[in-house]
Amino acid sequence: MQKEKIKISFAFILKNISYMIRYSYSNCRMRVIGIFIIALFSGINAANVTLFYKYAIESFERENPLLFLLITIMVYLLIHLFNVTVSNIFTNVKFPIWDLKIKNGLSKILYDKYISIDLSDINNADFYNRYVRALNEADQRAVLILNTLQYFLSNLFSVLGIVSVVAILNPILILFSIIPVISSTFINMKITKKDLIMKWL
């Protein structure tokens, strides 16, 4: 019975997550697009780190190892610095402004719904408690969902970046890299599912 309840609750959570993402996109499109931009740069940075180690090791086989290593380090640092700069601009400058816009939009939706309902429902204690809870938690849940989406996509793109580099360098190694990735992804999905249920209920 408990297991069935959790499944139903998680399905309900997924439905609400889908709604929140769609609403966030319609209310502030750049907030959702920004998540994908950060995730993309996470993948690029992961590939950058992997390639850095490869070329750093190969530099000792070159005619001028010190110069090649210096160029490798400079390229790595430039890409990494660009990635950090873009991520910080979105995370610390743009996202707080866009989050506020989404929060205000959700508050307006709840307020419009409140003034349009029947007076008898307003006097209902259960309804009032649910409304107050929704009003207090709606904006927090929206940001939580967007941050979780960003975390998931950033990790996904990072894995894809590393796997892509490994596949190009040595396709055989892709088999050894996929196994831990799949295992880690499966475990993280289980943890995320449980965490979402605990936070949402």
UniProtKB/TrEMBL annotation:
The chain crosses the membrane at residues 32-53, 65-86, 143-166, 172-191. GO terms for molecular function: ATP binding. Its main location: membrane. It is found in: Cell membrane. GO terms for cellular component: plasma membrane. The keyword Transmembrane helix applies. Keywords: Membrane, Transmembrane, Transmembrane helix. InterPro entries: ABC1_TM_sf (IPR036640). It is a multi-pass membrane protein. This is Uncharacterized protein. It comes from Acetatifactor muris.
